[in-house]
Structures are given as C-alpha cells and as structure tokens.
Amino acid sequence: MRLVIIILLFKVELAIFVDEMLWKLFNSKYGVDASNKLKDYALTTLNNVQIMYHQPSAVPKLSFHVVRFEVLTTQPSAMAAHLHNNGHAQKYLDRFCKYQRSLGSRDWDHALMLTGYDIHRGTGSRSISGIARLDGMCDPWNTCTLAEGLDFTSAFIGTHELGHSVGMRHDEPYCPAKHIMSSSLGPGKVTWSICSLRDYHTFLQRLDSRGKNCLRVSNLPQKLAMRTDLKPGQVYNADTQCYIMHGQGYRQISPRQDHYDGICYMMWCGQSSFGRIITSHPALEGTFCGSSKWCELGRCVPWPGVGLTATPKRVDGQWSNWSEVSCQSCKCSDISGSVGIVTSTRSCSKPSPANGGAECVGAAQRAIVCNRRCTSSSKSVEKYIKEKCTQQKKQKNDSELTGSGTQLTRYPQRACKVSILLTNLNIFKCLIFISFFEDFLFFNRKTDLGSSCSKE
C-alpha cells in the first residue's frame, strides 16, 4: 500500500521591495518615522494577504515569510523612470523581474514590488493597480508581482496578483464576478471561487510533476515577522484606513446608520466639513464593525472568546499634547483687516479610539493671535475673492462660472471658504469642486488665516 502525504500548508519565501517613488511619499508624509511606518504598512498589508490564503477553502494554505525587505531610497538604474514610462505596468514589471533575478543573493520563491506610481497601461487608462506573471511562482525569471502601495487597497491587489502567480485565471466567464479573482476589485470580493481553487490545485500538481515546487522547501532565515497576534484592522482602524487612502480629514462613515456592519463588504469614507462621501475598499480583516464584532472574510461577526488572537478591547481616545508654536513663524495675510495667526494642532492618538471607544471631545486645531497690527495688508476680502474666482474660471474654462464670488457669512462653518457664483442653477455638471449650495460652488480654497470671516 502506498502512503499518500497531504501537505496542508506551503511556505512562500518572499522578498519585498519598495521603490523610490513610494519611499518619497512616505518620507514626505511621516518624516523621520517614515521607515518604521513603511515597514508596519507593508507587514500589515502582507498579514491581510496571508489571511486570505488561510481561509477554510484555500487548501493547501499559503504562509508568507519575509526573507528580504529592501527600500530603494534611490531607484536602481535598471528600473529608472524613463525605462518604464513613469509607471507603465507591463514595462515596469518586466524591468523589476529582470532586476530581482539579477541580484546575486537571490534565492526567494517570489518577489513583490510596492510602488508609489499610479501605474497605467500606456493608453491613458489608469484602471490597473497591479500586475504579475501568470504561473510565475517558483520560476526565477517570472516569480514577481508589481502592486501599487498607496493605501490598503494593496492588500487586495496583492492577494489577486499572487493568485495569478500560483496559476489562477480571472473568474469570468466561468465563475461569478464576486470573488478575489474577478477581473476588477470591488465590494465583498474576499473569498475564492471554485474556478480559482481548481486553477490553484492544477498549478501545484504541475509544479510537483516537474519536480520544481519551491514551496515545499524552506531554507532562508526570516528577516521580518508579521504580528499574527493582531489582525490588520486592529493595527489600523477604519478611520486610519480612510485617512491613508483619501487624506487628511477623511474618516469611516456609514451612508446609513443601521448598516454600520457593511464596512466589511465595502468601507465608505467621508469628509464631514464638505459633505463628501467616497467608497474605499472592504475593511481590513479584524476591523471593528459593531458592538463586540469585527470583519472576517467580508462579514461582520462576533469576536471569538478564544483562539489565535485575544478578544479586542474597547479603547477610548485621548488627545495628544498641543504642538509647539513660535512667534517667529508669525505671518500676516495680504488681506486688509487681517491679524497675524499661528496654529497649533493636536491629534486624538494617545491612544486613538478603537473597537467602539469614545472619540476625543474638542477641537484638533487652535489659532493663536501673534500680531494684531498687520501693516502689509494690500487688498480687500472682496478683491481677494474676485482674483481667486477669476483664476478658477480661467483654469476650468467653464461657461457656467461667472468669475465672481462671495463669502457665505450666514453659514459660520463656510464663512472662511470662497464660493463662486454660477450663471444658472443647473449645477449637475462634473466639476472638481467639493460641494454645492444653491447657485454657488465651493472649491477647495479658503481665505488666508487671520482674514475676516464677516463684514460686521
């Protein structure tokens, strides 16, 4: 009788590279803490990817060991921007595959490049977010993936592209377009289809038949370890996921209050000061989604009492200290009637609220008057607004814009925003403005700090 050994877990020895463009973005955002932030981001992304490859249907499961982590603070000449047309997906992948193969110490199973480019297809289309060589795993020349690393969409891109590397085709047309290997990212696409699992098993069998299954061998030391004691959404809560994707001021919101748990299917982010709501991506695994609940494979489920991860704890937010200010940085606006202002900020981060904990109460920014006798003022508020509105009219080349504007001082929360008058009330036109009100459009422009916000 022949003994059949079934392996339930394979190990991918992974090399992670970060290109110069992504390093510059993190460096400009986080300064001296950029290196640590980048490492945390990459490992949290990989943790979410690994959870996708550990779900019950995925057999054998894939675990990822980081055997190399390299931040390319200076882009190697072999991958210079002009050689891949500043992020042409196929050209950049080709360059990266050759580069990782040429490294003398190369002995990993797969190489992943996280890029700061908004990669493109070369035809004006930027709908692509990642690319990998089909059936590339274990082939030194082709075992490589390129994925945008601009936010946590990378967790879903990486899962999808690594799927191509282990033999998975797109689900369509033989399976529904609601799984990880659908041809596009989308709500709730966090499970494997029967098509993907069939492709995966066929690929592994082919590797074994050729005696080239590198996933059966593990001989490199692990350089970085993921925090498997914490799920990704416990490291970066929903608000932080929104901030990383959309920027300052964005937080997780629910279009309907009774559907808060829907963030596991698709997370929504909003900026309350402008009323803007934007879709994001399914929340990371382990993101808080309701009382004693978190996200698990697209669903909001109760926390486990026992298991690999401890039961999450409710954490109330606390303010950090106010940032220091210096009167030497005091500046006066060139708008008449202004005073000199310096601003101090604080963040609800010591600690940040988590798992339903209370938000900090109060303002995150305060203004301190540093000069009550500004003498450099040269223009009225009306003149300033006229200049900005005329500038917008020229830039947009839009016949609906009059070039005239105002302050809507009857709305205190909007009094410091410049509003441009429309020629008619038909405002359902696709513009890059933030929000609409009556016959005015508000664009992303404010009067200078210290300027008067009322004629009174």
From TrEMBL:
Keywords: Disulfide bond, Glycoprotein, Hydrolase, Metal-binding, Metalloprotease, Protease, Secreted, Signal, Zinc. The active site is at E161. Zn(2+) binds at H160, H164, H170. Residues 1-15 form the signal peptide. Its main location: secreted. InterPro entries: ADAMTS_ADAMTS-like, ADAMTS_CR_2, MetalloPept_cat_dom_sf, Peptidase_M12B, TSP1_rpt, TSP1_rpt_sf. One of its GO terms (molecular function) is metalloendopeptidase activity. Gene3D superfamilies: 3.40.1620.60, Collagenase (Catalytic Domain), Thrombospondin type-1 (TSP1) repeat. SUPFAM superfamilies: Metalloproteases ('zincins'), catalytic domain (SSF55486). It is found in: Secreted. PANTHER family: ADAM METALLOPEPTIDASE WITH THROMBOSPONDIN TYPE 1 MOTIF B, ISOFORM B, ADAMTS A DISINTEGRIN AND METALLOPROTEASE WITH THROMBOSPONDIN MOTIFS PROTEASE. This is Peptidase M12B domain-containing protein.
